[in-house]
Design the sequence.
């Protein structure tokens, strides 16, 4: 999931979890919290505060307990400058599985998007 200049990779064990609406909503909430905190690592993102005051790590633990499968924050990245994110779906019935974030200078967003597509 992505928000602003941040990209988070949240791992689950099965497609069942990845398709879960609560999981998808949590991923977006986590990406927003990571962006607000400027979290540039897994540890920083796990410590980021959500709107309700809990941490990302706590939210993922609660979600894993509720769904009954392992769910973890696998990685996080944040750029301070201009960044463009492209999220690629490998299957139409699943959320994006590949994320690319490119930091750039200038104003040619179409070129930046093209670079992201080639990386993905």
Sequence:
């Amino acid at each position: 999931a992505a928000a602003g200049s941040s990209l988070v990779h949240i791992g689950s064990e099965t497609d069942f979890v990845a398709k879960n609406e609560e999981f998808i909503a949590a991923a977006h909430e986590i990406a927003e919290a990571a962006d607000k905190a400027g979290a540039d690592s897994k540890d920083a993102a796990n410590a980021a505060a959500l709107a309700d005051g809990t941490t990302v790590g706590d939210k993922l633990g609660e979600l894993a307990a509720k769904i009954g499968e392992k769910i973890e924050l696998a990685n996080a990245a944040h750029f301070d400058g201009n960044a463009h994110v492209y999220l690629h779906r490998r299957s139409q019935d699943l959320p994006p599985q590949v994320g690319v974030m490119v930091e750039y200078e200038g104003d040619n967003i179409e070129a930046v998007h093209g670079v992201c597509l080639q990386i993905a």
Notes: The first strand starts at residue 2 and ends at 3. Strands lie at 2-3, 6-12, 71-78, 82-88, 98-104. The chain has a mean pLDDT of 94.
